[in-house]
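re: ur question from yesterday

yeah so i grabbed the chain u mentioned. its 349 aa long if i counted rite. heres the sequnce exactly as i have it in my notes:
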Amino acid sequence: MKKKMAALLAALMLPACALAAETIRIDGTIEAVKTRTIAAPHSGMVGDFAVREGDVLSAGDALFTLGADKIYADFDGTITGVFAQPGDSAASVQDRYGALCYMERDTLYTASCTTAGAASENEYKIVHVGEKVFIRSDSNSNRVGEAIVTSVEGKNYTLEVTRFDDIRINENVKVYRDNRYTGASRIGEGTVRRIDPIGVTAEGYVRAVHVQDGQKVKRGDLLFEIVPDALDGLRGSDGSVTMPADGVVLSVLAVSGEEIAKDQPMATYCEKQDMQLVCPADEEDLAAIQVGMEVPVTLDAYRDETMTGTVVSIAGASAEGGSSASFDVTIQLPENEHVRIGMNATAEF
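ran it thru and got these structure tokens back, copy pasting raw so excuse formatting
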């Protein structure tokens, strides 16, 4: 609504030159210059979040988190090579290196064995998965060790060597049930082999790498985070979607606990400096308004403060719904900590 500086009767009594200099005051509302969208960087489930419409945030503030497939260590061991980096295609890395990384077990040796040469009693020809056994070199009785039976198939079984004293790779050993290595406790023989490193593989794109070459890990430790979509710019992420710039959240579109697709809008915002005052001016006042002119602007909430705005546009068509023709005048505002979307303000022309 238009505000006049003097009452109508006083205006009628003024000379023509005074009427020409009359100050026009027009009410308006603070709006966003441009609405920007924050899109999901990859598909995933939206985590819990606290951001709300109208929040004033700084660049880098966390808005949302997106879930990812997590790859964990299957056993205790050592990382022997990390070929994947954040942003990489898992398939491309695996085509080149065979795996995202490799792991060596803490127990480095295994033995493929048979019950051949076991004591004659049946109990020594029947081997049980999980039982502890003792091994000794065929060529040097001082080279001994301990092992656990990890699999059995008929007369054949496999050992995982848990402790050894100078046992050699590809060495033939005899297997016993007691550590005195008596013939009566012998349950077979076999050959010691090195356990090959195990490759860690996945499908998708690497969002995060949590290990490095030579690192000791425990079963259940997190190795990689994998997402289904390519990450823009071949960059990884910690799963956080952050505020791109200082500004105001205009809407929140993401829903906690729901899946979202890559590039789907999660929120909209307005940058801090992108706020403007839009005033509907009556057609008889347009002659006093020009694009480029500087005008005083006062926020209704801070009437004792005045800022200077610049007219950047005048609408080419009348706003709909009014009883008389009015045209939106848009005024660019300087950055001000008090300015907020939806505030009422007055411009003087």
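noticed a couple things. Residues 132 and 148 are 5 Å apart (CA to CA). also The first strand starts at residue 2 and ends at 4.
anyway ttyl
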